Amino acid sequence: MMKESLRIQELSNAFGPSGLEDDVLKIVQKEVKEIQLERDSFNNLSGVLNPKNHGPKIMFDAHMDEVGLIVQAVKPNGTMTFLPLGGQAASNFVSASYKLKNKKGEYVHAVVASKPPHFLSEIERNAAPQVSNLVLDCGSTSKEETEKEYALGIACFGVPDVECKFDEKKGLFYGKAFDDRIGVAAQIEVLNQLSKAKLPCQIQASFSTQEEVGERGVYANYKKLQPDVLICFEGCPADDTFQEPWLIQAGLHKGPMLRHFDVTMITNPRFQAFALDLAKKHHIPVQESVRSGGGTNAGRIHMEGVPSIVIGVPVRYIHSNYSYCALDDYQAAVQLGVTLAKHLTKEVIQQF
Ligand SMILES: [Zn+2]
Q1: What is the pLDDT of residue 180?
Q2: Ligand 1 centroid vs 247 CA: distance in angstroms?
Q3: Is 137 helix (H, G, I), strand (E, B) or coil?
Q4: Rg (CA), the chain
Q5: How far is the centre of ligand 1, averaged over its atoms, from the C-alpha of 205 (Å)?
Q6: How far does the centroid of ligand 1 lie from the alpha carbon of residue 19, in Å?
Q7: In angstroms, how far apart are the furthest CA atoms of the chain?
Q8: 275 partner at 20 to 30 Å CA-CA among 93, 109, 179, 187?
Q9: Can you tell me the mean pLDDT for 205-225?
Q10: Ligand 1 centre and the CA of 94: distance in Å?
């Protein structure tokens, strides 16, 4: 378990905004022991665990990218305007600390400038923040200094500068990017655990890119692997600190969440019921949800006629810079993935 919690921490800390997932790729390639994963020009990774198995093809997917930002322009005073990468509230950026990758490939620290209250007008004080009014400050005093000495400028990417911590007693992770690094970690562990199992199906691995900007990378992996069934591992938004108790559908320590519905997919009811039944039989805790928002790689791929489900590890304050997720939920997600792989026979899949 020590090894897995260190792996989760390493994945959470990795720099991997949509489009620049390279550091995450390296960790995945190091940690997936039994598959020689291939990289494509999208920076997706894919491979097959047991290519000699002629059973149905099960594609596991987790996306490697995280929400972040991209520098738009440098102002004469050296600060930088930026655009969000992936869906984030503008309030999320205010006073936050970021790690930017500069033109030399080094990581440079910057903060989102916050005007001191001393200088705020009454109107400014009460206004909701807008990304177009915010700037990043690396500490420079001019455009020349930002560009030459810090090697920062147009199209530099950034992610929150947050260090993952694991509270062993509570079994709780604190950090950034659990969407979807906790899913990436779960998928790595599932693949490693399945490497010696006798299986009724072929296991395909997809570690995809650019999910947060519109489920882009996964499509290339789907075309390459041509799966019969898709299982996505996700970090999904926990709702247990917002919702009325009767409406909590993704609480911490209650197991992974399986969505029946989100705005991009009505989950195949037969596959969903099979997964829920199997979880029950094997005493794996799960939660069910009907989501009024959301969207995942499954939303994209199910439209190709591939029955798809999403196993989501609840993450509190997802798409913000600081979040929590629980080790026990991750473990249950792994257990469910492994158990599904052992039971997805040709006959079962035909009924989906
Ligand atoms: Zn995600």
Answers
A1: 97
A2: 22
A3: strand
A4: 21
A5: 17
A6: 14
A7: 69
A8: 179
A9: 97
A10: 23
* Cβ partners under 8 Å of residue 79, min gap 6: 113, 135, 136, 137, 146
What is the Å distance from ligand 1's center to 31 Cα? 20
Pair (285, 196) in one structural domain: yes
Please count the structural domains in the chain: 2
Contact 310, 234 (CB under 8 A): yes
Q: How many angstroms is it from 332 CA to the middle of ligand 1?
A: 18
Give a yes or no: residue 229 inside a domain.
Answer: yes
165 lies in some domain: no
Residue range 2-43, pLDDT digits in tens: 889 999 999 999 999 999 999 999 999 999 989 999 999 999
Say yes or no: 187 and 45 in one domain: yes
Residue 205 lies in a domain: yes
**Token pair in block for residue 75:** 């102002």
Is the pTM of the predicted complex or chain greater than 0.90?
yes
The residue out of 133, 160, 187 marking a domain boundary is 160
Range of the domain at 74: 68-160
CA of 171 to the centre of ligand 1 (A): 22
Distance 299 CA to ligand 1 centre (A): 12
**Quick one: 18 and 153 in the same domain?**
no
Residue pair 107/334 in contact by the 8 Å Cβ criterion: no
